[in-house]
């Protein structure tokens, strides 16, 4: 980790040296300057994390240095020192952007504590910015959904509707990334600083779904021991994502329709209406139009939800996005992993695969490979059997001579043995929770021999990646 850099500014060299001596024990990089002009020049050469400056100096004093520094380098934290401590000085310093204020004389520990707290606050601000950037990168429309031509019209549409409060209905096969798209819409909307709340409508019964969405009052049903807010209250000012909306009952559909029409609802057992300032994004893998015809889904609710319809095509129809998804998933799921890329051969197999589980299947596979592969590049032999069957079949051309037949048989035999060895090792490790010594004992092999097999097939111990 890079060391923090601190610049100490005082027209008295003894004060500079004393402060430097106090802080050197904390393993900071310390520099000093004997006046404001020298300090500002040094700041321009190498920006410090903290400037500790005396207020009373000839020429450019501490207050002027504070003004110039905060204007040019607002990220620098500044601690002002003075021998004439007044409330007015403190207020003025804080107004100009000082992080803290310390009067002379002060104890060494007092200076250390103030600097430590300033650096802790600075670290939290940096981490917050990093997380916001990471979140922004993850939910940028291109990274969330890919950049293929089939998605360009969807991007244009979502960029327009994200800044509105229009209800959106996302359709597509299971695993196409409907919730990720909902997250991206929320993150690119004016509501992004407010809650994003999701509910799987297929996981709850009618009674539980009503209580979950709208909340309930104490005693409204057996087990209601206290008042409980629902998801509409939890998502106040933000977005409520209702996944598998096609699974809600007609009774809940009627109450959801009222929320969409009147922007209000009642908790279960309550008589008072509550206002709902919530944007609804719904998703389904069912054909709601057919359900309307079958009378299993309300037609009026369908049209209220289907204000902006968005259909996400399956991954097999946009395979050109697979490399982008892999890069994105590796950056998110592959932290701490050695894996940096896929070999061209492995990428070809990924592109040829049909992906019945869509983007979710791809994300899970990338995460698994990031955890289990010990190399920087994923190779074909690291991929599951269903990917490599095509590879074996395509590589096994019909021989035209006896020698070619023998060579092909050797190759196929070697591939079969390699796959069997890999399955043997991974299955044995799984049975023993990744413990190599216990696994070697179970399969009756020397530990070093078993470990050699692991290295041969790029399989890592569980304790190395947990």
TrEMBL record:
<dbReference type="GO" id="GO:0003677">
    <property type="term" value="F:DNA binding"/>
</dbReference>
<dbReference type="GO" id="GO:0006355">
    <property type="term" value="P:regulation of DNA-templated transcription"/>
</dbReference>
<keyword id="KW-0805">Transcription regulation</keyword>
<keyword id="KW-0238">DNA-binding</keyword>
<dbReference type="Pfam" id="PF00072">
    <property type="entry name" value="Response_reg"/>
</dbReference>
<dbReference type="InterPro" id="IPR025944">
    <property type="entry name" value="Sigma_54_int_dom_CS"/>
</dbReference>
<dbReference type="InterPro" id="IPR025662">
    <property type="entry name" value="Sigma_54_int_dom_ATP-bd_1"/>
</dbReference>
<feature type="domain" description="Sigma-54 factor interaction">
    <location>
        <begin position="144"/>
        <end position="371"/>
    </location>
</feature>
<keyword id="KW-0804">Transcription</keyword>
<dbReference type="InterPro" id="IPR027417">
    <property type="entry name" value="P-loop_NTPase"/>
</dbReference>
<dbReference type="Pfam" id="PF25601">
    <property type="entry name" value="AAA_lid_14"/>
</dbReference>
<dbReference type="Pfam" id="PF00158">
    <property type="entry name" value="Sigma54_activat"/>
</dbReference>
<keyword id="KW-0597">Phosphoprotein</keyword>
<dbReference type="GO" id="GO:0000160">
    <property type="term" value="P:phosphorelay signal transduction system"/>
</dbReference>
<dbReference type="InterPro" id="IPR002078">
    <property type="entry name" value="Sigma_54_int"/>
</dbReference>
<protein>
    <submittedName>
        <fullName>Fis family transcriptional regulator</fullName>
    </submittedName>
</protein>
<dbReference type="InterPro" id="IPR025943">
    <property type="entry name" value="Sigma_54_int_dom_ATP-bd_2"/>
</dbReference>
<dbReference type="InterPro" id="IPR003593">
    <property type="entry name" value="AAA+_ATPase"/>
</dbReference>
<dbReference type="InterPro" id="IPR011006">
    <property type="entry name" value="CheY-like_superfamily"/>
</dbReference>
<feature type="domain" description="Response regulatory">
    <location>
        <begin position="5"/>
        <end position="119"/>
    </location>
</feature>
<keyword id="KW-0547">Nucleotide-binding</keyword>
<feature type="modified residue" description="4-aspartylphosphate">
    <location>
        <position position="54"/>
    </location>
</feature>
<keyword id="KW-0067">ATP-binding</keyword>
<dbReference type="InterPro" id="IPR001789">
    <property type="entry name" value="Sig_transdc_resp-reg_receiver"/>
</dbReference>
<dbReference type="InterPro" id="IPR058031">
    <property type="entry name" value="AAA_lid_NorR"/>
</dbReference>
<dbReference type="InterPro" id="IPR009057">
    <property type="entry name" value="Homeodomain-like_sf"/>
</dbReference>
<dbReference type="GO" id="GO:0005524">
    <property type="term" value="F:ATP binding"/>
</dbReference>
């Amino acid at each position: 980790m890079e060391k923090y850099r601190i610049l100490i500014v005082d027209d008295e060299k003894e004060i500079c040296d004393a402060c430097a001596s106090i802080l050197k024990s904390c393993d900071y990089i310390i520099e000093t300057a004997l006046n404001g002009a020298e300090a500002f020049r040094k700041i321009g050469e190498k920006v410090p994390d903290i400037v500790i400056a005396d207020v009373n100096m000839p020429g450019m004093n501490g207050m002027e240095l504070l003004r110039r520094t905060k204007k040019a380098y607002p990220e620098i934290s500044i601690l002002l020192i003075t021998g004439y401590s007044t409330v007015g000085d403190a207020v003025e310093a804080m107004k100009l952007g000082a992080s803290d204020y310390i009067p002379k004389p002060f104890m060494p520990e007092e200076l250390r504590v103030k600097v430590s707290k300033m650096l802790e606050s600075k670290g939290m601000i940096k981490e917050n910015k990093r997380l916001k950037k990471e979140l922004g990168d993850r939910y940028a429309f291109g990274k969330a959904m890919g950049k293929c031509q089939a998605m360009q019209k969807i991007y244009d549409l979502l960029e327009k509707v994200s800044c509105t409060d229009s209800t959106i209905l996302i359709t597509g096969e299971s695993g196409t990334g409907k919730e990720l798209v909902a997250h991206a819409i929320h993150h690119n909307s004016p509501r992004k600083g407010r809650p994003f709340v999701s509910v799987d409508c297929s996981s709850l019964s009618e009674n539980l779904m009503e209580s979950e969405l709208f909340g309930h009052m104490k005693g409204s049903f057996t087990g209601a021991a206290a008042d409980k807010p629902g998801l509409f209250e939890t998502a106040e000012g933000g977005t409520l994502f209702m996944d598998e909306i096609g699974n809600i009952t007609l009774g809940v559909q009627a109450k959801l329709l009222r929320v969409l029409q009147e922007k209000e609802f009642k908790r279960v057992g309550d008589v008072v209406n509550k206002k709902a300032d919530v944007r609804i994004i719904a998703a389904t893998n069912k054909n709601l139009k057919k359900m309307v015809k079958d009378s299993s889904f309300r037609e009026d609710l369908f049209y209220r939800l289907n204000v902006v319809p968005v259909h996400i095509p399956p991954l097999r129809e946009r395979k050109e996005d697979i490399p982008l998804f892999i890069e994105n998933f590796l950056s998110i799921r592959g932290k701490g992993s050695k894996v940096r890329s896929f070999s061209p051969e492995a990428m070809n197999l990924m592109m040829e695969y049909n992906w019945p589980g869509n983007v979710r299947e791809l994300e899970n596979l990338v995460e698994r490979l990031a955890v289990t592969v010990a190399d920087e590049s994923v190779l074909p032999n690291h991929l599951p059997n269903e990917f490599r069957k095509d590879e074996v079949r395509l590589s096994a051309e019909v021989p035209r001579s006896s020698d070619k037949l023998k060579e092909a048989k050797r190759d196929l035999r070697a591939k079969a043995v390699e796959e069997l060895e890999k399955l043997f090792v991974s299955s044995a490790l799984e049975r023993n929770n990744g413990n190599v010594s216990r696994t070697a004992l179970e399969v009756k092999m020397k530990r070093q021999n078993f470990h050699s097999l692991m290295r041969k097939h790029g399989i890592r111990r569980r304790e190395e990646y947990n």
